[in-house]
Amino acid sequence: PKLYSSLTKKTGTIEKCRRLDLIKVREEDIFSTMEEVVFPVDLKNPEVSVVIPVYNSCRELIECLLSVLKFSPMCSWELIIADDCSTEHHVEKIFSARQDLRYIKQKENIGFLKNVNNAVAEAKGEYILLLNSDVQLLNDIVTVFLNEIGGDASVGCIGPKILFPDGRLQEAGGRIGKYCKMDMIGFGDNPNKNIY
């Protein structure tokens, strides 16, 4: 499975981004784009909760959501947008009244980790897919993940390959070493190598 992270944009990669078939929304189109979108979710009994924490960055969030819609899971799922008290009021204006997702806004900015934990506590799904608001799905990772987990109680977490805009590997998982030092596996390498 692959994700695209726009957080790591580098100049000169626009042509390569197009090759990755990324979704682009113009700032002036954010309201009209979301008016046309309906997510086929199950808010009562989802198998998977897709949790997307956000702080501002409304355009990137919409691009992320459109990629989720493009690769909608083949199982029952819910969508939770966890707003960490964005100062851009577009996020609340666009998402707070929607019936096809759950919008949770913090009363004050509490930081990424607490925002995620609060949203996960509200999630109804057996499984959680945590997506940063600045990523785009490039395939149906939910189905891939569910097939990999396959009811295996020994598996607690699965992570995707994450690509830079130029196609290099940002990471194919991570490892926690001595003294809790985190290493990203495959950083900057070719994502098509068999070891990933």
Average pLDDT, rounded to a whole number, is 86
Estimated helix fraction: 25-40%
Spans where pLDDT lies below 50 across 5 or more residues:
1-18
Strand order across the biggest sheet?
6-1-7-8
Number of helices: 6
Verbal overview:
The protein is 26% helix and 21% strand. It has 196 residues and is of the alpha/beta class. The protein has a four-stranded mixed sheet with strand order 6-1-7-8. A four-stranded parallel sheet has the order 4-3-2-5. The protein has a two-stranded antiparallel ribbon with strand order 9-10. The protein is globular, with a radius of gyration of 17 Å. It starts with a strand and ends in a 12-residue tail after the last strand. The N terminus is likely disordered.
Topology (elements, then pairings):
Layout: E1 2-5, H1 14-19, H2 30-35, E2 48-54, H3 58-70, E3 77-83, H4 90-95, E4 102-105, H5 112-122, E5 127-130, E6 135-137, H6 141-149, E7 161-163, E8 169-171, E9 174-176, E10 182-184
Parallel strand pairs: 1-7, 2-3, 2-5, 3-4
Antiparallel strand pairs: 1-6, 7-8, 9-10
